[in-house]
Design brief:
The complex is a heterodimer of chains A (about 260) and B (about 260).
Chain A lengths: L1 H31 L9 H9 L9 H32 L1 H16 L6 H8 L3 H25 L3 H8 L5 H38 L5 H9 L4 H29 L12
Chain B lengths: L8 E11 L4 E12 L4 E5 L6 H8 L7 E5 L11 E4 L11 H5 L1 H5 L8 H10 L15 H13 L5 E5 L7 H18 L2 E6 L2 H7 L2 E5 L6 E6 L14 H13 L4
Parallel strand pairs in B: 3-7, 3-8, 5-6, 6-7
Antiparallel strand pairs in B: 1-2, 1-4, 8-9
Helix pairs in contact in B: 4-5, 7-8
The chains are: A mainly alpha (about 260), B alpha/beta (about 260).
Amino acid sequence: MNTTIRMTRSFLSKALYFVVVIGLWQAAITVFKIKEFIVPSPLSVFQALFSPEIAPQYQWMTHIGTTMGEILASFTFTAVFGFILSLFITWSRFARAVVMPVIAVFNSLPKIALAPLFLIWFGYGFAANVMIAILVAFFPVVLNTTTGLDSVDEDLLDLVRYLHASKLQIFIKIRIPMSLPYVFAGLKISATLAVVGAIVGEFVASSQGLGFLIKDSQAMMNTPPMFASLLLISAIGLGLFSFIALMEKVLMPWNRPASEELG
Amino acid sequence: MSEDRTPIISIRNVKKTYKTRNTELEALGDVSFDVFPGEFVSIVGPSGCGKTTLLKILAGLLPRTSGEIVVDPANFNIEREVGFVFQKPLLLHWRKVLDNVLLPIEILKIDRRSMVDKARSLLALVGLEGFEDRYPNELSGGMQQRVSIARALIHDPKLLLMDEPFGALDAITRERLNMELLQIWEKTKKTILFVTHGINEAVFLSDRVVVLTARPSRMAASLDIKLPRPRAQTVRTHPDFGRYALEIYKDLELS
């Protein structure tokens, strides 16, 4: 009962916030007489998205599908292989010695600068964009997960070592569960970066996707679809972020605050 | 105390030194004593006397520099039949209480299902019936240490090593847990090696108190405590109680 009231209140306050922001936006345009090709009105953005006469020319579903596909593909790859690579790095000193310098070099590189090269290597479109997004998003997961797997309380290791636990048991029962908060912190950063990577990729090498639509509309100073695309991109980013936060709650139920205090 | 006079474990001239760049730091200097089956032996000494080091050597967590640890492998498998209660509860915060108790079972690759009932009854023994499905962060410090005692008993160890298990708890909780520990010891008939710096605590609990001095650590005494069992708080008023305590104070050069 109490939670229902709290959730309703939270929803209402968010809705109110949204209405206020849109009102201010419209007011600023009216008061300062801002031209449509500089900042469009909320109404024309809405029309660009939903009006039966205007919206179809932008082929929203195609662009959204392309961008989401790129983000999900690159993020999934990043999450899975970033985690596996971190396991290798923390499992074997040799792997750490080989992999870590490479990661350090790539991480210090402005990864976006590689986008034109990727266009040459992977061609024009989806594959190149996914690769760019992976390159941008990959390292935070690896660096965070590695830190998490390394930062284990020595006393906890004593607890299983006196029972002669194997290295594999120590990983499965201690190190990996210990690292989960770090893993999720890394995944949240990577999710944001995967969106950045996909959009930048579309700027450079695409004829589809919301990034492409922004660039394409820019040529005609057609701002309503640009704003609409920005809204959609942030919605996709928020959606992915919320999904990770939800997974974090589901997979780490112990992290929730204690329901009641015991003396 | 025990009729069987074959020691479960003999510690013979065990020494531990740490080498730093140009000095040798002596953590434990030449300790020898026997522990007999079913005995409750306390090791008393100030911080830095190496009592924790000794327990860790016995548990195989640290190598010894010299000396011998003798067990009869037919009677006592030191690899699998040791339980360890640490200073901190060291519960895995992502596991519920019951799953924490079952951790040694998983490490030792014993069938988990067959041990669930035992885990429940051990939790009942330490007074935590009904807390099986709680997470550790929902428990108080004393309750967490009770869970860690149940965990140390789950694989039915013959020797229970306890490293100042109640040191971090408030005095009243500590007294309560000391009483409970005696009851657990009487019920389970384990051999207990208990490290503490509480002199009265050691006298109250033990059949024998081994006294270690500060660095350079050496064994000052091994004192049989012949107070009646089962012990209740009234034993503290026994004329011998103060005599034993005073003797330990003397061994530690505190009087």
